[in-house]
Amino acid sequence: MVERRPDYHTSFHCLGDACPDTCCRDWSVVPDEDALADYAAAPSPLRERIAQNLVTDEDGDTCFRLDEQGLCALLTPDGLCAIQRDWGEEHLCAHCAAYPRFTEEFGCLTETALAVSCPEAARLLLEAPRFALVETDDGRNDPPFDGVDPDLLAGLEHSRAQVLALLDGDKGTIWEKLNALLGRAKTLETSLSAGDFRRDFPFPPPPIPGLFRASAVWLLEVLADLDPLRPDWPELLKERAKQLSALAEADYSALRSRYERANPRWERQLTNLACYFVFRHWHKAVNDDDIYGRAAFVCAACSVLYHLALFQPGEEITLWSRFSREVEHDEDNLAQLFWALSEPEALPPPLTF
């Protein structure tokens, strides 16, 4: 079996009370059965506090209660989980103990990513010299899980390696590379039935500069219509869309130039981000064949986060983690975004980079 993870994976350490945005917020965490049994043996008064704050959600699952601000009821004023602080990290439920690590398993392949919804994971990605993977192979020739098409998985492996090499290569700007990614994904998706993953695809023509800003405004408006975790997120997106639309072309160019001069690593940062999204989401097409939707999501995320950063330079970590929480971790929002991006030719303006 092959195992892969980003090379900065082992550098991650939870910031605890120093984290600028706690993960103990917005999400209803469902403890596993082993954790629930463990909580019954917790020391008093922690045992009583846990019991008082376990509730049943609309799906009938037992989860931790969230307060009016969306904070987990077990979060203490000093920003630490009461279970971890008063009893020990080993007593956290599996979900809380694993975060921000997310693992995808395909039987013959296991991959772990650090979700950028965590500010510290976002910082490690933003500051990495490049997005590089560490791979180990135990030598066993394990088959894929039942229900996973081995030819499709092999094709996704090959095509993703191509895409990561494209994004990290020296040819073209980040926007030209994303444009090439879209073209490559479109060709791959139309040839899925033939299993034609192994062709090399030429760079498409460069994008049309005049549509780049209009595409970003449209994306901001699409994202603002998704179901938010926090009400200030769609408000921010709508405000930025208005500001971006109102800029004269010369002012827009000047804004971009100032940002890029002030942050000389901006293109490397976006490249790392694009590689992260490709690594985390590309192989999920084994479940639904939607390669183009995932490629379009990568491009849309990079465009949106670049344009948000133009108005909030130096706040890339915050913006990346907020976007991930609001979109990447919400299956309904992600599905709606995939649908909106699935036929860009029919939507004004088209997805352009």
Structure report:
With 353 residues, the protein is α+β, with helices and mostly antiparallel strands. Helices cover 50% and strands 8% of the residues. The chain contains 14 helices and six strands. The chain has helices at residues 33-39, 46-52, 82-86, 94-98, 119-127, 150-168, 174-190, 209-224, 232-246, 249-262, 266-281, 291-311, 316-328, 331-341; strands at 2-6, 54-56, 62-64, 101-105, 109-114, 133-137. It has a four-stranded mixed sheet with strand order 4-5-1-6, covered by helices on one side. A two-stranded antiparallel ribbon has the order 2-3.
Topology:
Elements lengths: L1 E5 L26 H7 L6 H7 L1 E3 L5 E3 L17 H5 L7 H5 L2 E5 L3 E6 L4 H9 L5 E5 L12 H19 L5 H17 L18 H16 L7 H15 L2 H14 L3 H16 L9 H21 L4 H13 L2 H11 L12
Parallel strand pairs: 1-5
Antiparallel strand pairs: 1-6, 2-3, 4-5
Helix pairs in contact: 5-13, 6-7, 6-11, 7-12, 8-9, 8-12, 11-12, 12-13, 12-14
